[in-house]
Design goal:
Layout lengths: L8 E2 L4 H8 L1 E4 L1 H8 L17 E2 L10 E11 L2 E4 L27 H4 L2 H18 L4 E11 L19 E10 L1 E3 L1 E6 L5 E5 L6 E5 L3 E5 L2 E3 L5 E10 L9
Parallel strand pairs: 1-2
Antiparallel strand pairs: 2-11, 3-4, 4-5, 4-6, 6-14, 7-11, 7-14, 8-13, 9-10, 9-12
Length: 246
């Protein structure tokens, strides 16, 4: 039997002190609802979109286990605007496996972005960024992921333990079905401190100060014939999107 460690949940009021002190924080679904100011079921309106993600054709390991969509936004002075569709780009410094190439993924569906919970979620997290690092425009990349067991095993982070080259990373578990594994591991980027836990409740939120910690998720395996793990990853960056000219 493999031990499963529970997430180190905190209350929303402790979010900024925890991020300043440890570089990461985890909120239970009720805490996410309180942070965003909506009901506990509001985010469930987004879930159906994960059944229509498109295959990731850029996986260098040759796998078929990842589907995704990707869109970008800018949050500035309390207003969220969708940016024109663009490629996702990371340098090789932050992604040794897939860095250095422009990856064009299908955009998020319009009816997903139109949900009131979507704007409130992204704005609430922009407020966290402002509280942590000061008021400024925040450039947001939104990634919908489904990691499945089509290949017998699915890899949430095929690049291994990494940073993303942004200011703040938000990982929300949307669903997990028929799998084992998918353990989250967070490490201090400059020291031995680390923690491991498994996100199991839909709409659990993990926040990471990307300058201070590195993270990874372990592979998933099916409990039966097929399983999957759905996540929403939101990255917030000051100064522009990655790949923009300085």
């Amino acid at each position: 039997m493999v031990a499963t460690f529970l997430p180190p949940f905190i209350e929303p009021a402790a979010l900024l002190p925890q991020l300043r002190g440890r570089g990461y924080a985890v909120l239970a679904p009720a805490g996410v609802a309180a942070l965003c100011g909506f009901g506990p079921q509001a985010l469930d309106e987004l879930k159906p979109a994960w059944d229509d993600l498109q295959p990731d054709r850029y996986l260098k390991d040759g796998g078929n286990y990842r589907k995704r969509r990707h869109s970008c936004f800018v949050s500035d002075r309390g207003k969220l605007v969708q940016a024109p569709h663009r490629a996702h780009w990371q340098s090789e410094e932050y992604n040794a496996l897939h860095g250095g190439m422009r990856r064009w993924f299908e955009p998020m569906q319009a009816d997903t972005i139109a949900q009131p919970a979507w704007t409130r979620l992204l704005q609430a997290l922009a407020d966290v960024c402002t509280g942590l690092k000061g008021a400024q425009p925040w450039y947001v990349e939104a990634h919908q992921f489904r990691i499945d067991t089509t290949d017998g095993i699915g890899r949430p982070t095929p690049e291994g333990a990494h940073r993303d080259g942004v200011d703040l990373v938000a990982v929300l578990l949307v669903d997990r079905h028929g799998i084992s594994g998918g353990e989250t591991r967070v490490f201090d980027a400059t020291g031995p401190d680390g923690q491991r836990f498994t996100l199991t409740e839909p709409w659990t939120l993990m926040l990471l100060d990307d300058e201070r910690v590195i993270h990874e998720s372990t592979p998933i395996q099916p409990l039966g014939d097929y399983g999957y793990r759905d996540t929403l990853v939101l990255t917030y960056r000051a100064g522009g999107f990655q790949g923009d000219a300085p």
